[in-house]
Amino acid sequence: MNEWLWGLGGVAVGVVLVHGLGYLTALARWFKRRCSCLGATFTLTPAETTALIAMLNRALADEWFAFYQYWIGAHVVAGSLAMSVIAELREHAEQEFEHAGLLVERIKQLGGTPLLDPAEWAIVSNCGYLAPRDYDSKPVLEQNVQGEICAISSYTSLLEFLNGRHAVTAGDVTFILAQEEEHKRDLQGLLTKLGK
Ligand SMILES: [Fe+2]
Ligand SMILES: [Fe+2]
Questions:
Q1: Mind listing the pLDDT tens digit for each residue in 91-135?
Q2: How far is ligand 2, taken at its centre, from the CA of residue 9, in Å?
Q3: How many domains does the chain have?
Q4: 153 shares a domain with 101
Q5: Rounded CA gap, 139 and 180, in Å?
Q6: Which residues fall inside 5 Å of ion ligand 1, going by CB?
Q7: How far apart are CA 18 and CA 109, in angstroms?
């Protein structure tokens, strides 16, 4: 009887071990599919990578427009607080230029091709371009606030798309988003100083 019980117990332990190993193997396969590099970087499917590259290229077009809008704005703006506005627009232009560089490196690392022709910017841009027709400080600042609101929205969408995956890209997008939010606050601060 004892031998029979021991045999039954051995079979039960074997079944548990085999199933346990099966579950562990399935879990390891799932983890390998989802992660690389010690689990620090979540991967994307090929289709998701293609979609991400397209989103990054749209953001790249936005950055070039933002850069030029700030850069030309700094050259033409006039009126109240003009010197402070010029200094702020120049600083923002430099940072938009840096954002464009970060995005190009991300796109290349993901195996994509960054936009090569300025003619493509208007076609793919999320935010478009608002030419500063009225050079007074207030309308120039307000146009740039609009641009920042759009940029914040598009980078927020990018982070939602990533949903914690691809840590390097998520890190760069988070960094850019924080600067766009700071830009918006700076511009709104100047508008407040203008008393408008
Ligand atoms: Fe930017
Ligand atoms: Fe910005």
A1: 999 999 999 999 999 999 999 999 999 999 999 999 999 999 999
A2: 68
A3: 2
A4: yes
A5: 19
A6: 63, 96, 99
A7: 41
